[in-house]
């Protein structure tokens, strides 16, 4: 079976509590009282995770990635069972999140106002920005170095990507036309690789993802920014404020650890 279609389960043991309550009150060492997330019946937390060299990838049959390793460490620390569902299409992932198929979405997600209107978002996981991925022209033609140079041109983005919001805002700011193409079934990683292969002209991708792809394809130029630096977040299913509350506490806690700094040094 394809690795992209098979859920990757983490063999964590969940603490089964009596009753069907969604949360319990716990006093941590700091004295702070927080809501600990416990799903009814000890069910797993279903996580849609974007396939990319930054978020989730397979290397020698071993899953790895910044977000994957971070959430895995958090789940282990808090005795939570997590099941990962690798996804290539962000549009499908958002539909699944909205329909209750997934409890949360882990991906390269900028905390845009539009995204906040549709889904609860966690506290910042890390900082990143969008860049233009373009192929270096061996004929000596200068690459695009400003957003104004994209007027009348075309750029590719992953279907359902929040980057569409930034591009629409940029088009309004420029007061002109840029054709934005979102082909179904392609992730940001796929689009960066297709750009390197000359199949698409240029694409908008998160800088951290683009940097990993450019290491494999030196023909790529990723030096032209499309956005300012933005907070990158995870999204939670609408209405699940208890999971959001717990995730925010866990993320803040984990970001103060040497393990987080080690992951950031490796991937970011």
Please characterize this protein's 3D structure.
With 268 residues, this protein is an alpha+beta fold. It is built from eight helices and 15 strands. It has helices at 66-77, 90-99, 113-118, 163-174, 188-196, 207-216, 241-254, 258-267, and strands spanning 8-9, 23-27, 33-37, 45-50, 57-59, 62-64, 82-87, 104-110, 126-128, 130-135, 154-156, 179-181, 202-206, 220-225, 230-236. The strands form five sheets. It has a six-stranded mixed beta sheet with strand order 1-7-4-8-15-9, sandwiched between helices. It has a three-stranded antiparallel beta sheet with strand order 13-10-14, with helices on one face. It has a two-stranded antiparallel ribbon with strand order 2-3. Helix 5 packs across helix 6. The longest helix is centred in the last third of the chain and has 14 residues, at 241-254. The model is unreliable at 1-38 (pLDDT under 50).
Mean pLDDT: 80
Tell me the structural class: alpha+beta
How does the major sheet shape up? 6 strands, mixed
Rg from alpha-carbon coordinates: 20 Å
Strand content: 25-35%
How many β-strand stretches? 15
Strand order in space, largest sheet:
1-7-4-8-15-9
Q: Helix proportion of residues, in percent?
A: 25-40%
Number of helices: 8
Shape: globular
The helix-strand sequence is EEEEEEHEHEHEEEHEHEHEEHH
Low-confidence stretches: 1-38
Beginning-to-end CA distance, first to last residue: 31 Å
């Amino acid at each position: 079976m394809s690795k992209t279609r098979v859920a990757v389960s983490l063999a964590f043991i969940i603490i089964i509590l009596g009753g069907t309550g969604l949360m319990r009150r716990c006093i941590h060492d700091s004295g702070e009282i927080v809501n600990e997330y416990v799903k009814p019946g000890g069910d797993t937390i279903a996580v849609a995770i974007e396939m990319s060299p930054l978020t989730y990838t397979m290397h020698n049959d071993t899953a790895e990635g910044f977000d994957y390793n971070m959430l895995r460490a958090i789940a282990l620390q808090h005795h939570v069972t997590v099941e990962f569902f690798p996804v290539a299409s962000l549009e499908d992932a958002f539909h699944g999140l909205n329909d209750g198929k997934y409890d949360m979405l882990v991906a390269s997600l900028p905390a845009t106002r539009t995204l906040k209107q549709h889904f609860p978002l966690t506290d910042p996981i890390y900082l990143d920005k969008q860049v233009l991925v373009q192929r270096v022209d061996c004929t000596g033609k200068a690459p695009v170095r400003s957003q104004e140079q994209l007027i009348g041109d075309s750029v590719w983005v992953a279907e359902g990507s929040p980057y569409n919001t930034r591009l629409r805002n940029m088009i309004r700011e420029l007061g002109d036309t840029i054709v934005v193409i979102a082909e179904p079934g392609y992730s940001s990683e796929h689009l960066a690789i297709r750009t390197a292969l000359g199949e698409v002209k240029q694409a908008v991708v998160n800088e951290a993802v683009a940097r990993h792809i450019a290491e494999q394809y030196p023909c790529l130029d990723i030096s032209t920014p499309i956005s300012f630096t933005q907070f990158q977040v995870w999204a939670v299913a609408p209405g699940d404020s208890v999971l959001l509350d717990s995730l925010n506490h866990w993320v803040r806690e984990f970001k103060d650890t040497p393990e987080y700094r080690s992951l950031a040094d490796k991937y970011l």
